[in-house]
Amino acid sequence: MDTEKLVDLLKEVIVDHECILTDNADLHSYSYDASFGVHVPDVVIMAKSTIEVSNIIKLANEHEIPVYPRGQGTSLSGGPLPVKGGIVLDLSKWKDKLVIDPGDMVAVVSPGVLTAQINNAALEHGLIYPPDPSSSHVSTIGGNLAENSGGPRGLKYGVTKDYVIGLEVVTPEGEIIRTGGRTVKNVTGYDLTKLIVGSEGTLGVITEATLRLFPKPQATQTLMVLFEDVVVAGKAITNILSSGILPSKMEIMDQASIIAVEDYQPMGLPTDVDALVLIELDGHLAAIKDELKQVIEVCKSVGSREINVAQTKQEEAELWKARKLVSPAIVRVKPTKISEDATVPRSQIPEMFKRLQQIKAKYQVDLVVFGHVGDGNLHPNIIADKRDHEEMRSVEKAVEEIFRAAIELGGTLSGEHGIGTLKAPFMEMELGEVGLEMMKRIKRSWDPNNILNPGKIFPEPGQRLVLTDD
Amino acid sequence: MDTEKLVDLLKEVIVDHECILTDNADLHSYSYDASFGVHVPDVVIMAKSTIEVSNIIKLANEHEIPVYPRGQGTSLSGGPLPVKGGIVLDLSKWKDKLVIDPGDMVAVVSPGVLTAQINNAALEHGLIYPPDPSSSHVSTIGGNLAENSGGPRGLKYGVTKDYVIGLEVVTPEGEIIRTGGRTVKNVTGYDLTKLIVGSEGTLGVITEATLRLFPKPQATQTLMVLFEDVVVAGKAITNILSSGILPSKMEIMDQASIIAVEDYQPMGLPTDVDALVLIELDGHLAAIKDELKQVIEVCKSVGSREINVAQTKQEEAELWKARKLVSPAIVRVKPTKISEDATVPRSQIPEMFKRLQQIKAKYQVDLVVFGHVGDGNLHPNIIADKRDHEEMRSVEKAVEEIFRAAIELGGTLSGEHGIGTLKAPFMEMELGEVGLEMMKRIKRSWDPNNILNPGKIFPEPGQRLVLTDD
Asked: ipTM strictly over 0.90?
C-alpha cells in the first residue's frame, strides 16, 4: 500500500491527526536507536490510548503492514528499528498514568512513563521499584518491559520481569487482553505476563503494566576494593556470596576501564590494578555494619590490595562516579561503542576475563570490560570507529567470539540488552534448532501475518552480524 | 491401540521392563491425586532418563496416545489425573541428581527429588532453596515445577518459578530442548523457562532443572498476634508491609480454624478471636530485633488483642504448630477437604473475608479460612463428605461463588495450586475469551496432537465443577 493511502486509513482511527508524522525529518529521527543501522519508516504514530493501538494494529494486520513499537529508542540491540519499513508506533508520549498503591504495594503505569519516575514516585511512599538500568532516567518502562531490562541492583533484586505482575496488551491481531493482575501469586493458566515481558515487542504491544514495589531498605553502604588479579576478585565475589551476604550491587571495572576513566577525569584511581570492584550493601543499618566487616575480612583473606569504605553519602557518590564515568570516558577514545552483555555463570567470571583478554589481543580491538559481576553479567565494550570498515570487520569477528566464549562457558548471548537485530544471527548457537523452533511456533501462532516487530530476534536466512549503519 | 500392543511398543524403548506397570492394582494406585476423580490409565511407566522420556513421548505422539506426567500425586487441582486414559509417566522414581554448586549458587536436580531434600542439601552449604509448599517433604520438585508451587515464604522470597533459571524439557513431540541456563540473567529469546514452569505438564516434561539458591538468613523470629476483628488484622498486615518490613511469612487462621485446632489438640488458643496472625521475620539478628519492635508497635497501634513473641526455637516451633495442625484438625470433622487458593490483592483481604463469611452462611457449608495472608493468597477450605451428593452440590456452588468473589475483587482463581481439572471451567471468567485463546494457541502450536496432559487447564465444552469421584 502506498503511504498516502495508509495515512488516510490511519486518520480514520486516530483522533488527533497531529500524532501522525510523515515528514521526512520526522521519519529520520525514528530511523535509529542506540545500536546500529538506519531504517526509515513510512509513517510514525504517537499513540496515547489502548483503543488507538488496537485500531492501528487491526489495520496493520489486515493490510500486512509491519508495526514497530518504540519507547525512547535507547535500545542497544536494535529492538525498535523499523527494518522492514511500515509504521513506527511511538509510545513514549503516552505517560498519563503513574499510580502508586501503597496498600497493594504496586505501581500501575502507562508505557511512556520513564522508569526512574516510577522509583521516585514509589520512594514518596517508602517503597522502591528496584530495577535500575543505567538508562532509567531516559528510558521508558515500555521499552524496559519489552527488553526485560536489568541493572546493577539485579544481583539482589532481580530484573524487570521479576516485578511485573499484570499487563494490558494489544495482541498482533489488535485484540486487547489482560494478563496476570494485581496479586503477586497467580498460577491461572500459562504465564503470558512473563512471556510477553522480554519478547521485544514481537508478541504484543504493552499498553499498561502493574509492577510490584518493595519496602525501601533502611540504609546503604558502599565500598571499593582493588585487586591485582581478576581471578582473586572472582574468588572474593564468590566467597562474599557464599558467606550469606547478598549485596545490592557488585560492579567490576577492568584495568582498561580504570585507565579510560583516569584519562578522562582523574579521580586518583590506581591504574596498575587488574580490577576494581564496587560493592553496595543495603538493608537494616546494624545488619550492613556487620556485613561490611565480613566483606572486608573476606576480601583481605583472599588478598585484595586496597579497600576504600565510603564514610559519608558524598563519599558513596564519589565511589560510584568512577563506574558511571566508564561509558562517557571510553567513547572519548573512539566514537563507536559496541556494548555487549554476554553473561556467564558466576564461577566462570575469571575464565571469561581470560578469554576476553585473548580476544582483545587476537583481533587487536579496543576492549574494556566492566559490569554487573555479582551475577556474571559483564559488559565487554569495544571502542571503534564505525566509519572505518576494516576495523569494524575485526570488531564483528571479536564480538562473535565473545558470544561463542560466553556460550561455551555455560552462559548466554544476552543478560539484559536483548537480541533485537544484532544478536539474531547467533540465536541457534545458544538455543539449538529445536529450541529456536519452539519460540518461532509461539510467534507464528500469535502473529500469523508477522506484523509485530518483524526482523527481530529470529535470524533471517543467512543473516550475519553487521556493525555498520549502511 | 489396544494396551497389549502399546506395551509391546513401549518395551522396545524402555530398558528395564519392570518399569512398565499394567497390573490392575498398580493402575488403580495411579488413578487419583489429592483432588477429585478416579481415572485409571492403560499403562504406567516409571521413567528414569531423558532419552526414555523422549522415546515414550515420540511413540505416544506418533500414535496419539495421551501422556500424563506425575510426581508424588499431591496435586490439589487434578494436575496428574489421567482423565483420558493412556500412559501415566511416573517421574517420582527418578531422583539420581541433586547437585549443589555453591560457587554458582544453584542446585541441579532430577524431577523425582523431593523438594525438602533440595533445601536440606543447600543448607549444608549455608544456602537455602526458598520455596516451601506445605507438602515439600512428600512432593517432588517435578510436580512443584509443573504447578509453580508456592508456600508461606512466598511473601518475601517468591514462588517456585522465581527460582528456576534453566530446564531440560522433552517437548510434546519428544524432542529434547534446554531453556535458560546457569545464569540468573538471560534475555535470549522468549522465556520458555517461565512459560513451562506452571504449565501443569501440558507443554513439556521437565527432565532436569537448575534452581537458584539464596544465602541462608542469619536468624528468624516468630510472633503470634490475635485480633478481635479480621479487618483490624488486615490493617496491621498492610501497615507492617508499608513500614518497610518484609516478613518471611505472614499466615492467618480464622476463628473456625482456631476452634478446629483447639478441638483437635488443645493448645490454649483463645477461641473467641476473629483472627490469629503468625509472623516470621528473618535476616540479620540485629535487624530482626529492631523489626520485631516495629511490628509489635504497629499491631498495638491498630488495636490487636494480644501478642505472643517466641523466646526460644522451641517456642517458635510451638507457635507454628497451630498453623500446621489446621489441615489434620479440619479433616477430623468431615472426611473431604476442598482446599482452594483463590487469591486477592492485599488491600482486598478484609473484603474477601467478609464475602467468604457470606458464602458460608448462604450455602450452609463448613468453611474455614487460613493461609498466606501477606500476599493475599488465602486458603478457604470447605469440609464435607463427598459421599453426600446433596451436600457436595452446595459445596460446588459455594466454591464457584468463592472464585467469582476473588475475580470481582481483582484477584485470581489460583495463587499456587494450579488449574488442573478442577478450575478449568472458570478459566474464561478470569481470562476472557481472547486471553484463553492466546494460551490455547501456544498449546496447539507446541502439541498439535494434544497428547501431553490432555483435559487439563482448558475447559471442555460445557465442562462444570464436579466435586465427586464418580
From this structure: yes
